[in-house]
Amino acid sequence: MTTFDKLWANGAFRFGAVVLGLVLLMALLAPVLGTVDPAQMDYNNINRSAGFAGNFTLTDGSSVAHHFWLGSDNFGRDLFSRVVYGARVSLVVAACTAAVALLIGVLVGMLAGYFRGADLLLMRFMDGLMAIPAILLAIALVAALGASITTVVIAIAIPEIPRVSRLVRSLVLTLREEPFVEAARALATPTPVILLRHILPNAMAPLLVQGTFVAASAVLTEAILSFLGLGLPANIPTWGNIMAEGRTQFSQYPGNVLYPALFLVPTVLAFNLLGDGLRDVLDPKFAKR
Amino acid sequence: MLRFVASRLLAVIPVLFVVSCVVFLILRLAPGDPAAVIAGNSATGAEIEQIRAKLGLNESLPVQYGIWISKVLQGDLGHSYFLNKPVSDLILQRLEPTASLALGTIVLAILLAVPLGTVAASRMGGGLDRLLSVISVAGFSVPVFVTGYVLIYLFSIQLQWLPVQGYEPLSGKGGLWAWARQLILPWLALSIIYVALIARITRASVSEALTEDYIRTARAKGLHERAVLLRHALRNAAVPIVTVIGIGVALLIGGVVVTETVFAIPGLGSLTVDVVLNRDFPVIQGLVLFFAVSYVVINLLVDLSYLLLDPRIRY
């Protein structure tokens, strides 16, 4: 049985992979899924209810027949189009955050694990960083850096770094005592080569698992930041931004808050289950954690 | 025992030092000149320079940190840019709603999660156990604002059982009931992730305790199963449970910010959102520091509680 067969036999992995595949497909195919420009306002179509079929006025003044699958908001923007394009932002933020957190976390964790002198200082710093609740740290960083995709990714990634670096450090501490690392050292292999060629490949499975969980928390945190009005600028349609705008008229039109949630929740759930599945199959040592 | 207490107290110092450095640097990272903000739009260059000198902004970064931290240690968290009040006053004014929300959530979560986890551990694979695994996955995937709005939609808008938003002080006219009525939905919304966290650990650690020899002994001497579970298994599983309650406070603090916004509760969380939108950096700094220090202190208390929970811990 190949690794993929084993993964596919795992229900959690299968659910996560299928749902994320659908979300990815939706994000890629956004323009051809019966959407209109997600930023286009049409004052003839304000607060339409879900399923409404009518005409949508485009930028050039011409109008097209359009199904408002999820209705429209108080600016007459098509909610379905906004949610579908919002998936792009969520996935980009998830991937970039995971990449940044893993990259820096691996660097810090390897330094701390391999060079005992750096260990105390780095890990004390990471302990301190962990003492600031993640969302609060992200909020403070966004306040200091300003809000754009780059700064939001950095702000969400930084609170994740201590967890990644602790994991990497513990893996390096075990791996550095392995005979193959000792052999490499005996052959006078330069330390960077030992770290990248001998230690890193053996740490890949737990890192992949951790990366999936970071992605889940990134989607969630981005939505929370945007929902609070502290995340990406309001002109970018993200699930959090759509919900933030829906807040003002929640009691009359709850759909503007609840429909984006129907996409957000399964996406986060899928990342989490994908991580669980990967962990159970690739990293059985940590499965009981 | 004294050594244990001393070592835990000492371990907190470097953590607090790093926290204070990070919080200090966040303000320094921020664009804009604090002196210019305080001086206002009509200030002359000389006036701004005067304020810079007064605030010590011309000093080197370590010296500025020294000035700042010595004030913080005396309880002076600085002055708000816009609200014309000391930061510490702002925090104290908003403390009651946040404390009500957070403490109520912790109590509710423990009352729900510990029995749930214990029963799940004693009947593994049963209905309750499966419910628990659903809750624990869902708890980490449904953001608290979604839960909050779903609860508002069901109980406030559709059924009209509970008020939509707002906060009644405990000392208000309506007394205890008016206070609790406003908080029922926020408590529920915020406790879900916490219940998931605590129940999962309770299940794992009680089920591990149940495999021990003393459980077999307890059963063999004819002890009632409930007594075995509560007095022997749960008691021995207490340390990891209390630990996760402490660690979970970080999640709780993040959740408080969101929950207060959803339910329009005028506490520290909604203050955080307001001051970030206004870029009122001294208040942001004060709030982050306050939350982080609370988190560290709570976990210190958790560490010290091991002494009561597990007499073997002596060092």
Plain-language structure description:
The complex is a heterodimer of chains A (289) and B (315). With 289 residues, chain A is mainly alpha-helical. Chain A has a single domain, classed as Orthogonal Bundle (MetI-like fold), CATH 1.10.3720.10. Chain A is built from twelve helices and two strands. In chain A, strand 1 and strand 2 form a beta hairpin. In chain A, helix 2 packs across helix 12. The longest helix of chain A is centred in the middle third of the chain and has 36 residues. Chain B is built from 14 helices and no strands. In chain B, helix 1 runs antiparallel to helix 14 and helix 10 packs antiparallel against helix 11. Chain B is globular and about 85 Å long. At the A-B interface, helix 4, helix 5, helix 10 and helix 12 of A face helix 1, helix 8, helix 12, helix 13 and helix 14 of B.
Share of residues in strands of chain A: under 5%
- The SSE string of chain B, one letter per element, is HHHHHHHHHHHHHH
Annotated CATH architecture of chain A: Orthogonal Bundle
Q: Kindly report the name of the CATH homologous superfamily of the largest domain in chain B.
A: MetI-like
Structural class of chain B: mainly alpha
Low-confidence stretches of chain A: none
Mean pLDDT across every amino acid position of chain B = 86
In summary, what is this structure?
The complex is a heterodimer of chains A (289) and B (315). Chain A is mainly alpha-helical and 289 residues long.
